[in-house]
Amino acid sequence: MRESEHKLRSVIDHSSDMIILTDESGAIIEWNASAATTTGLQREEVLNRPIWEVQTELGTPERRALISLEETRQMIQQALDTGHASWLGQLSESTIQRRDGVQRTLQSIEFAIQTERGHRIGSVMRDVTDYQQAKAALLQSERNYREIFNASSDAIFIQDAQNGAILDANQTALDLFVCSYGEALQMSLADFSMNTGPENQAVMQRTIKEVMQNGPLRIEWLARKKNGESFWAELALSKVELGGQSRLQVALRDISQRKQTEKELFAEKERAQVTLHSIGDAVITTDAQAQVEYLNPAAEMLTGWTMADARAGC
Fold this sequence. Notes:
By secondary structure, the chain is an alpha+beta fold. It folds into three domains: 2-128, Beta-Lactamase, CATH 3.30.450.20; 154-257, Beta-Lactamase; 262-312, no CATH class. Helices cover 44% and strands 27% of the residues. Strands 2-1-5-4-3 form a five-stranded antiparallel sheet. Strands 7-6-10-9-8 form a five-stranded antiparallel sheet. A two-stranded antiparallel sheet has the order 11-12. A hairpin with a 2-residue loop joins strand 9 and strand 10 (245-254).
């Protein structure tokens, strides 16, 4: 018996969890080292004191304003008298405030122990402050990422590099392709292409493989919205690490206006070339270094030089 008690005492004293136990009257009879470290109240300070008194002392100002000492006593007394309470056996979280003003978040479970004289209340608590802070920081980081992600003027897709499935899409992408977030996650980037055949899937997979192995790539691509409307897009593909896994990030922008401008400029140049070839006046153009760039047929006849001779400096 003494050996068993010694082992139990060792387990309680060395536990990283707070272990607290009351007698049948609600007085504290067990308060291990972890409880002392976490709360700042030493064992000798709390032994034989009513648990509701210590619990109220450790309550935050907000909790003390919400639940009085008497209400706390009545709640615990009911559990001592009957062995039943809605909060017994339920995992819960609460915040305590130490005497030095430091607040800690505890995860706990309380239980009733029946004895010949009534019921005792046991409690096992774990300090989860650091975990909760890390969780809150992670959530804030995710919110920051999401705000930046959605604020981008470029359409952005995050893809599975293995199968090409879309894992995430920002609001700009959804607006550009006229689809919902749920619809986007059911597709791959190849589904947004005007070329929808198997060969397009194969080209896309080769492109993804090249980016994942060799680094960023920029290409022009004829895209298709959900409603069937096509437009030219410039894609910047890069490898990113998210959640410990390699993903493909595709930043896409509509360059239809740029392509149209280029087309119009080319057409204008063609018209100018036809005009220069057909007029009877000699026309010679040079660059900034006075090197001949162009002679029309009339200039060739006048000078006796061909345009190739002139460019070669003959």
